[in-house]
Amino acid sequence: MDNKNINVLEVKGLSKQYKKGVYASQGVTFNVRKGEIFALIGPNGAGKTTTIRMISTLLKATEGDAIVDGHSILTEPEKVRQCITYLPDEAGAYKTMTGTRYLEFMAGIYANDANQIKEFVERASEISELGDRLKDKIGSYSRGMIRKLLLARAMMPKPALAILDEPTSGLDIINALDIRRMIKKLSSQGMSFLLSSHNMLEIEYVSDRVGIIAKGHLLEVGTAEELKDKYGTRNLEEVFEKVVLSR
Ligand SMILES: Nc1ncnc2c1ncn2[C@@H]1O[C@H](COP(=O)(O)OP(=O)(O)O)[C@@H](O)[C@H]1O
Ligand SMILES: [Mg+2]
């Protein structure tokens, strides 16, 4: 079946004012298709986290709506929460638990019965690629290993949409490459992703389409190739520069 034309997310004019008259995001509109990796890219303070947190139902939108797998964040937030997972930037995990214990603990929250707990833990263990290190305490893990564990946890319930805020930030190149490859692999198995990143070069390799966001405005949406062609540039960083300067 061709999923690529079904939208798993429709964002319709989402705006947020933390303070009256000051927009952290304004009229943000885009779609994410089933099986797609969509990345919001822009510098720090652009409004990525604000937009993502509204879609994740953690932050109330000032204006607009988003439809996640057919459910409105305004009128059906519980339904939305059931079909997404959200991985915040700078998320941590319980240092005194082993990796396996952490996955069991999280499976206990997501799963309906003992069989499903087992299934979820097996699935997440495999996704994490941590092997025997899952038996060790999380306190002994590197940043990269913790991120892999958190990614595996996020994918455990097979969410209709996985929302990952800056999934590779603070990682060295090897671990960032691993995370990118893991996301690509999950996407090829049919999972859908909304990512954010301030690293425009890196995101070019992982996303099917990107949205360029600056000062709360979504300025361009397209594939990296389309945007590079349109602006006659070699990479997305240069596209960003031109998009922002042209306004
Ligand atoms: N809780 C908050 N209260 C007031 N302003 C905020 C809050 N969170 C973020 N902002 C402001 O909103 C804007 C967008 O921030 P954010 O969404 O975190 O951007 P990004 O994730 O792209 O770095 C910034 O100007 C930021 O200072
Ligand atoms: Mg952010």
Going across the major beta sheet, what is the strand order? 6-7-8-3-9-10
Classification by helices and strands = alpha/beta
Mean pLDDT across the residues is: 94
Beta-strand percent range: 25-35%
For this entry, give a set of tags:
247 residues, alpha/beta, Rossmann fold, 2 domains, six-stranded mixed β-sheet, four-stranded antiparallel β-sheet, 9 helices, 10 strands, 39% helix, binds adenosine-5'-diphosphate, binds magnesium ion
Tell me about this structure.
- 39% of the residues lie in helices and 26% in strands.
- It has 247 residues and is α/β, with parallel strands linked by helices.
- It has two domains: 1-83 and 161-247, Rossmann fold; 90-158, no CATH class.
- It has a six-stranded mixed sheet, sandwiched between helices.
- Strand 1 (7-19) and strand 2 (22-33) form a beta hairpin.
- Helix 4 crosses helix 5 and helix 8 crosses helix 9.
- The longest helix has 16 residues, at 173-188.
- The mean pLDDT is 94.
- The chain binds adenosine-5'-diphosphate (ADP) and magnesium ion.
- Magnesium ion (MG) is lined by residues 48-49, 89, 165.
